[in-house]
């Protein structure tokens, strides 16, 4: 089995764990910086070059595409998919999940519950936006933000109007969401692999911070999912078309609400909180979907069926 892990840094915990897990199975595995790829396209020919080396088509790829490099990264994933490499996260699904607005639209259409969300142009009336989102307190999210950066809680209408005017004055795209007070600054991260939940943890924000991201000083503990929480996570992963993903939910009075579906979930927090070999579950997924007895050029791989 030839596997490429597409990652900017081989020293990252998640990348190292994936590499170790694939290596332990005797696979031919390489960590490749996708920004060093160049591709060649000609009639009937798709080729990929890495630092002057012409790469063979792998059996499978594990994309770890950074949010700031989504366009280039997904282009490389798509090229390898067209060379018949099996990808644990499809290029189209990665692009959808990285677009916060688009992903919420897809989840809504699939009947997945989420916080009430408003998106409007900077010419819209701030007062109307506040009312549409259910009034203050409310949460403002920059569409391009990641890991809790660009997320602001505003508690009064006056503050909300000031912040909205400031962001819109800088021509920033914003999502305005209702604030779920009963969540208490905590959320649930669920890892879904091939349509099944393989691990879950509760992330609690640092004292005084409503954001639960571990990168912002939060902590993680094992969490046992209810039946509803499990079905919501699986439905979200299915709607986004991701074979491997992290589903982030907050618990509300009306049930679990999906905040985000992450196409490159970190493994460190979830593996340490649960003691589960998540990297191994991803390798199992690859094994179930790749027939190494069939030549790569003729191998049939799963195709992305969602066009949204």
For this structure, the CATH topology of the largest domain is: D-amino Acid Aminotransferase, Chain A, domain 1
- What is the overall number of helices? 9
Structural class: alpha+beta
Oligomer class: single chain
User: What order do the strands of the largest sheet run in, or round the barrel if closed?
Assistant: 14-13-12-15-16
Describe the overall structure.
This protein has 308 residues and is an alpha+beta fold. The protein has 3 domains: 2-95, Rossmann fold; 99-113 and 182-283, ATP-grasp fold, B domain (D-amino Acid Aminotransferase, Chain A, domain 1); 117-179, 2-Layer Sandwich (Dna Ligase, domain 1). The chain contains 9 helices and 16 strands. The chain has helices at residues 13-24, 70-82, 91-98, 100-109, 126-132, 157-169, 227-240, 268-274, 278-289, and strands at residues 2-6, 28-32, 37-42, 45-50, 53-54, 60-63, 86-87, 117-118, 138-142, 151-154, 174-178, 186-193, 196-204, 219-222, 244-252, 255-262. The strands form 4 sheets. The chain has a 5-stranded antiparallel sheet with strand order 14-13-12-15-16, with helices on both faces. Strand 9 and strand 10 form a beta hairpin. The longest helix is centred in the C-terminal third of the chain and has 14 residues, at 227-240. The two termini are 32 Å apart. Mean pLDDT is 88; it is low at 297-308.
